[in-house]
Amino acid sequence: MEPIEIFKKWLDEELKLSKARISSAVSLSTIGMDSFPNARFVSYKELIYNCFIITGSLNSRKGIEMETNDKVALTFWWTETERQIRIQGIASRLSEELADHYFSERNLNSQAVSSICEQGKEIDNLEQLEKKVLEKVSEKTAITRPNNWGGFSIKPLRIEFMDFKKTRYHDRKLYEIENGEWNLKQLQS
């Protein structure tokens, strides 16, 4: 079975069991401007052309880091099925059309937050920012996607699956692209 098909199967199995509010959360790791790795959780959207889609603020730390160094990693940990998936790949910015599509799927409050907040920037008064968001939501008008909001498509080069076992003898498989084909290696746990 190809790694993308395994991912879909594992995701489906986890989603059927998960009670998590954000069951599609994934850790995104980037290389920081100071050469230190940075990891944070983001919402995985879907697969398009076998690439993993995430969205968010383009002028946030993660957005700037992906624009500067397109080598990224995604790590999924699924509690219910006790599985981990690690992905290393290349990030590319989404088209304006796709960014518009994902923004339109967000609820009004999330759209308002994205149109007003400057993610990761220092703030003096959080209550004042919350008030601005509430005012925007209360207008109940369509919110246009801000230019600094978009997303990234991550083309995988390596995908590692680890199925945890009570025996501690975990099933660990690494798929790597070699000469345009996925190559499988069984790894020790």
Describe the structure.
The longest helix is centred in the first third of the chain and has 15 residues, at about 5-15. The chain has five helices and eight strands. About 30% of the residues lie in helices and about 40% in strands. The chain has one domain (about 5-105, about 150-185): Electron Transport, Fmn-binding Protein, Chain A (Pnp Oxidase, Chain A, Roll), CATH 2.30.110.10. The chain has about 190 residues and is an alpha+beta fold. A hairpin with a 2-residue loop joins β2 (about 35-50) and β3 (about 50-55). It has a six-stranded antiparallel β-barrel.
Distance between the termini: 21 Å
Rg calc: 18 Å
- Poorly predicted spans: none
Report the CATH C-level class: Mainly Beta
Separate helix tally: 5
- Reading side by side through the largest sheet, how are the strands ordered? 1-2-3-6-5-4
In this structure, how is the largest beta sheet organized?
6 strands, antiparallel, barrel
Query: What is the CATH H-level superfamily?
Result: Electron Transport, Fmn-binding Protein, Chain A
Fraction in helix = 25-40%
Mean pLDDT: 92
- Count of DSSP strands: 8
* Principal-axis shape: globular
CATH architecture: Roll
Please report which band the strand proportion falls in: under 5%, 5-15%, 15-25%, 25-35%, 35-45% or over 45%.
35-45%
What is the number of independent domains? 1
Looking at the structure, the CATH topology is Pnp Oxidase, Chain A
Helix/strand/pairing category: alpha+beta
Listing every helix as H and every strand as E from the N terminus to the C terminus, the arrangement reads HEEEHEEHHHEEE
